[in-house]
Amino acid sequence: MSSFNNSPRPPAAAVPWWRIYWFRGMVNDIKRRAPFYVSDFTDAWDYRIVPSTIYMYFANILPALAFSYDMYEKMDGAYGVNEVLLASVLGAVVFSLLAAQPLCIVGVTGPITVFNYTVYDIMTPRGTPYFPFMCWICLWAMVMHWILAITNACNAVRWVTRFSCDIFGFYVAILYIQKGIQVLTLQWRASEASAYLSIMVSLLVLITGYIAGLIGNSKLFNHPVRVFLKDYGTPLAVIFFTGFQFIGKMENVHLERMPISKAFLPTPNRGWFVHFWDISTGDIFLAIPFAILLTILFYFDHNVSSLMAQGTEFPLKKPSGFHWDIFLLGITTGISGILGLPAPNGLIPQAPFHTASLCVTRKQSDDDEDNKGKVETVVDHVVEQRISNLAQGLLTLGTMTGPLLFVLGLIPQAVMAGLFFVMGLQALEDNGMTLKILYLLKDKTLTSISHPLRRVKNSTLWAFVWVELIGFAATFAITNTIAAVGFPVIIFILIPIRMYIMPKYFRPEDLGALDEPTASDFLLESVGGSWGTYVGSDGAPSPEDPGRTPVISDTEEDVMERGDSVRLQRRRKSSAARPVSRDVNEEAGSSSAGRGLQHRKGQ
Fold it and tell me: Are strands 359-365 and 552-553 parallel, antiparallel or unpaired?
């Protein structure tokens, strides 16, 4: 199999580092993506759109509700359910209709939640009005996003590898778990009985949601049942345990519930339009350093979300466009500031989950001589379109109506805590850091000799994991201090650390086994292709065919345990117009069809 060599390709021609081709990236993104715009709607005539839309509606709105409660508690009610829902709608509508990467789900994230309440804690004690100040942060950040897009700054995305993505994903997962614990600690305000009942409910939500995912990945029951449990197990758990509080004597125990406001109105007593002029001139310019930090956060977070939504595990056929999308993100950031909303950006893990939910798979016999008689699951194609993202955004808008807000007001905060736990555990489960740590703890005598990490010495693997853990610890530690607004800087410097420092201490072949590009050259064409080259087992460069994605599979050990593997096939010309042959046992891909996949060794 080909591995990753971190040696930069020599440039085709010497170009001064200071030369900027203004607007070139944005123009090229539009030229590449525009021919596919009509097919982005016609290709949506596919069954996968329905379960994908429903799944992403719940996968987006439930974390949004949890984050709204977190900000409501820590910001004295400045943000609530309606603000977070409207921010999600704004991101969904703009990016589904106009983005070059419409598969990327945009909404309110954990990191922006931390950023918002940290700014609130810093500025409100000095008498600065929060919403006008935050509006100026967003307006300055909008201009900075535009500058990044115009100057083709997204070309640096090609240097983002799994190393940075895994650390950031690990941070987000631990942040979810931390938020769940924080929600439970607040339940003692009601009573001791309420607190202990809340702990029980949150753990039951976690167990139910996690078991539903396990069954979805198992061989129990038939395929439709497994897909149903994987797609809808967690939403059904939220619905059931919302009513669970009214069963028997538990009805006499008061549980803290989700705070809501009137339909389509802001949570605090204000209008939707922020009076951003009601602030001193000094505070306007004081917002600039905060805007720089917000821009760094969104540059990394949104681009990584886009990369993961278009990862090498998905056989995508339509081009990407990072420059144009960062320009759009600037627009939504500015609008959010003017409306007094938490600014939306790319969501992890919802963005890759969206693509995975659109995968269509089929069964076929394994061609490998060693696996004769076995059946492998093949990802036939991904339904690439704009409708599922748009539809889940419109469903979120409908949630802001009075009747549905009333229903949301019945959800106990304990259920939100359990939801945080489910999201955190699921994000940890497939994270590259977690997989490496589990490998190190396994009995090597029970690990396949073809496992890709067997080529790396344990001491080297431990060193690599420790570097990742230090990067995570630095990010997590700073977010728990008053300097939390600076955590985007810690995340951003992971890129040059991987580029310039780690190659001095790790051999290229070890880095090739431990790290890899986040997306293929085909999808990174917008930013000049991926950094480095793919190197074959003989050490010779093996440029990737732009017409196909790398062949990938589950880890060898997983293949041995489950008896199947996953292989991505050559891209098809149309995701809807060319149906799979009737003699093939086709099955709709589950919501996690592409999760946790790695390059197959020996291909």
Answer: unpaired
Q: What are phi and psi of 589, to 5 degrees?
A: -70, 140
Cross-strand partners of 517? 161
CA distances from 404 to 88, 335, 391, 410 (A): 16, 25, 17, 10
Q: What pLDDT digit, counting tens, does each position of 474-512 carry? A: 988 888 887 777 777 888 888 889 888 999 989 888 888
Going by C-alpha positions, the residue among 48, 164, 171, 2 that lies closest to residue 593 is 48
Higher-confidence position of 526 and 577? 526
C-alpha–C-alpha distance, residues 550 and 350, integer Å = 23
Question: Distance (Å, rounded) from C-alpha 207 to C-alpha 226?
Answer: 17
pLDDT tens profile 148-158: 999 988 888 88
Helix (H) or strand (E) holding 567: strand 566-568
| C-alpha distance across the termini of the chain, in Å | 4
Question: Dihedral of CA 419/424/429/431: which sign?
Answer: positive
* Res. 540 pLDDT band, cuts 50 70 90: very low
Cβ atoms of 524 and 157 within 8 Å: the answer is: yes
Buried b / exposed e over 146-182, threshold 16 CB at 10 Å, is: bebbbbbbbbbbbbbbbbbbbbbbbbbbbbbbbbbee
d(CA 169, CA 348): 7
Cis bond before residue 349 (omega within 30° of 0)? yes
The distance from CA 575 to its chain's CA centroid, rounded to whole angstroms, is: 23
Give the H/E segment covering residue 598. Answer: strand 598-599
d(CA 420, CA 411): 14
Return d(Cα 363, Cα 583) in angstroms, integer. Answer: 10
Alpha helices (H) along 341-399 = 350-357, 387-398
Number of other CB atoms surrounding residue 93 within 10 Å = 18
pLDDT for res 452: 80
> What distance lies between CA 259 and its chain's CA centroid?
26
How far is it, in rounded angstroms, from Cα 50 to Cα 44? Answer: 10
pLDDT digits (tens, 9 = 90+) for 21-80: 888 889 999 999 999 999 999 988 888 888 889 888 887 887 888 788 888 888 888 898
Whole-angstrom distance, CA of residue 484 vs CA of residue 407: 34
Q: Output the DSSP codes for 324-342.
A: HHHHHHHHHHHHHHHHT-P
Residues 6+ apart with CB under 8 A from 407: none
Half-sphere exposure of 74 (CA within 13 A, CB side): 19
Which residues contact residue 473 at a Cβ distance below 8 angstroms, ignoring those fewer than 6 apart? none
What is the model's pTM? 0.78
* DSSP type of residue 549: P
Residues 6 or more apart in contact with residue 372 via CB below 8 angstroms: 366
- Local confidence band at 464 (pLDDT 50, 70, 90 cut-offs): very high
Look at residues 535, 563, 567, 533 and name the one whose alpha carbon lies nearest to residue 552: 567
- Across 108-129, b (16+ Cβ under 10 Å) vs e yields bbbbbbbbbbbbbebbeeeebb
